């Protein structure tokens, strides 16, 4: 019995040592990636935090954060940023859900063709697409001239250098980021579920809202969060189509650096926006089970 116990203990120790060697091997393989992440992500973010606490005299201070509390202009900038991001997300939801549903119902060949049209904007520069909307939406642009010709309105309508133009341009750019995860979620839904609901007497509208729509929630939540978070840091489209009237955090940071060259004030805005973004993701993770929505678990 003693020999058996000794052999068992020896085998257990050998297994433990082998497991530790495997863990160290995996860790050694992950070290280069961890160093790259630390250099590319953590170091710049850490430097951003450091600069936000440095005053004009080079000393540590909370002056920049205190100004954000005292001056109402900062409140307006953050309210505009979240307002534009929320409205853009809602517009993408209104346009993207029917589009993704349409693509999911098509045969694979036709779905691939139309999906190519959805992905086509990715092959064009963001700046080019933004200025294309500027050409279309300006007072003497193609859209105003066409609307006047067909009698839709009599005088040119201001569609650019305001919130309207900014939302149109951002929704066009962000739409594929919502359609892709939503389409992926819809393609995984078994169509027989809808047929079974119909056989059990459910009306199409009831079957959609009670069966189909809940199954698309993971893609819907993931796509909405991607669009919302990307919109928070948008710069080019609000700067061009907003015409200086739609001031978001990114444009405010640029203005501070160009006019004042104040890295501390600009960094503090970036830090607050980063913290706000993390808070949004954390709340969404708790409410919508973000891990399940993004990776299809649970």
Task: Characterise this structure.
With 298 residues, the protein is an all-alpha fold. Helices cover 79% and strands 0% of the residues. It is built from 14 helices and no strands. It has helices at 2-52, 63-70, 72-105, 108-119, 126-137, 142-149, 163-187, 192-199, 204-215, 217-232, 236-241, 249-259, 263-288, 290-295. The chain is flat and about 90 Å long. It starts with a helix and ends with a helix.
At a glance:
With about 300 residues, the protein is mainly alpha-helical. The protein has helices at about 1-50, 65-70, 70-105, 110-120, 125-135, 140-150, 165-185, 190-200, 205-215, 215-230, 235-240, 250-260, 265-290, 290-295.
Our estimate of the beta-strand percent is under 5%
Instruction: Report the structural category.
Output: mainly alpha
CATH topology of the largest domain: MetI-like fold
Named CATH architecture of the largest domain? Orthogonal Bundle
Quaternary state reads: single chain
Our measurement of the CA-to-CA distance between the termini, rounded to an integer number of angstroms, reads 46 Å
Series of secondary-structure elements, N-terminal to C-terminal: HHHHHHHHHHHHHH
- When the domains are counted, the total is 2
**How many H/I helices?**
14
Sum up the overall morphology in one term: flat
Unreliable segments of 5+ consecutive residues? 293-298
Computed over alpha carbons, the radius of gyration is 26 Å
CATH class of the largest domain: Mainly Alpha
| Largest sheet descriptor | none
Mean of pLDDT: 82
Number of strand segments = 0
Q: Give helix % range.
A: over 70%
In CATH terms, the superfamily of the largest domain is: MetI-like
């Amino acid at each position: 019995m003693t020999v058996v116990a000794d052999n068992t203990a020896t085998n257990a120790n050998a297994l433990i040592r082998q497991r530790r060697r495997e863990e160290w091997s995996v860790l050694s393989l992950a070290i280069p990636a961890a160093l790259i992440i630390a250099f590319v992500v953590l170091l710049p973010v850490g430097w951003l935090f450091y600069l936000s606490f440095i005053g004009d005299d080079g000393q540590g201070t909370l002056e920049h954060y205190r100004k954000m509390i005292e001056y109402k202009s900062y409140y307006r900038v953050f309210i505009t940023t979240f307002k534009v991001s929320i409205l853009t997300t809602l517009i993408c939801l209104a346009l993207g859900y029917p589009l993704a549903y349409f693509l999911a119902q098509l045969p694979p060949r036709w779905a691939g063709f139309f999906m190519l049209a959805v992905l086509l904007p990715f092959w064009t520069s963001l700046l080019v697409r933004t200025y294309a909307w500027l050409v279309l939406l300006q007072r003497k642009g193609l859209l105003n001239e066409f609307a006047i010709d067909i009698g839709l309105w009599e005088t040119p309508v201001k569609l650019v250098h305001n919130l309207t133009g900014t939302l149109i341009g951002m929704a066009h750019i962000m739409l594929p980021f919502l359609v892709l995860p939503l389409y992926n979620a819809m393609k995984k839904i078994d169509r027989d579920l809808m047929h079974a609901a119909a056989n059990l007497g459910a009306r199409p509208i009831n079957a959609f809202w009670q069966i189909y729509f809940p199954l698309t929630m993971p893609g819907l939540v993931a796509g909405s969060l991607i669009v919302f978070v990307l919109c928070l840091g948008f710069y080019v489209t609000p700067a061009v189509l907003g015409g200086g009237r739609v001031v978001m955090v990114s444009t405010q940071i640029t203005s501070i650096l160009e006019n004042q060259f104040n890295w501390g004030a600009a960094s503090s805005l970036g830090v607050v926006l980063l913290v706000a973004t993390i808070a949004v993701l954390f709340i969404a993770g708790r409410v919508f089970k973000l891990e399940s929505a993004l990776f299809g678990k649970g």
